[in-house]
Design brief:
Length: 193
């Protein structure tokens, strides 16, 4: 199959791949599998750039593999997009194997620390209110709910995200809330309900 692109490193941005479409002859159309491969490589590169925003050495390892498989599937008279898609799947699985647990654990730690910082004080205050002002049971109950919710959000994330995909590596939560906003939102929702 003929490749309809020139694929090479972007000279202006060493973290980017340039896809230059070749001039089409009359009646030629770019095969769908080549367009899909180009889009998938571009999406993978975005994930890698975000994942390794501060690590050019690690990025370069995956970047060179990504560039090579894009050239395999999109360039020259013997372009093979199906084989390149398989190589891309292997690359994604490799990245998940090496980086998935680090990304998930870092997020769990960040979410847990935030939950502890805004949940533990309410639990301590609730205990003190119950110990010294037993008549304020309603206030202490709301504080207990708030603190319990913070722990619940942390546990919920761990239970929901048993397996993460390649696309999850740069954004673990599709709603893109940071941990503090997520916890405050869940806490307020719990109190309202």
């Amino acid at each position: 199959m003929n490749g309809y692109f020139r694929v090479y490193p972007n000279q202006d941005n060493p973290r980017d791949i340039h896809f230059e479409q070749l001039q089409l002859s009359a009646g030629d159309i770019i095969p769908e599998d080549q367009l899909e491969l180009r889009d998938d490589v571009d999406k993978a590169l975005t994930v890698l750039n975000m994942l390794f925003a501060n690590d050019d050495v690690q990025l370069q390892n995956y970047y060179s593999q990504l560039l090579a498989l894009a050239q395999l599937g999109l360039v020259g008279p013997s372009a093979n997009p199906k084989l390149a898609q398989r190589a891309l799947t292997t690359l994604k699985n490799d990245v998940i194997s090496h980086e998935g647990s680090r990304v998930k654990n870092n997020y769990m730690i960040k979410l847990g620390k935030t939950a502890l910082c805004i949940g533990l004080p309410s639990l301590v205050i609730a205990y003190l209110i119950r110990a010294f002002y037993p008549s304020m049971v309603l206030v202490s109950s709301f504080l207990l709910m708030w603190g319990g919710c913070m722990g619940g959000v942390w546990i919920s994330f761990g239970a929901r995200k048993l397996n993460i995909t390649f696309e999850d590596l740069n954004v673990l939560e599709k709603d893109r809330m940071n941990p503090l906003i997520r916890l405050i939102f869940a806490g307020l929702l719990t109190l309202i309900i």
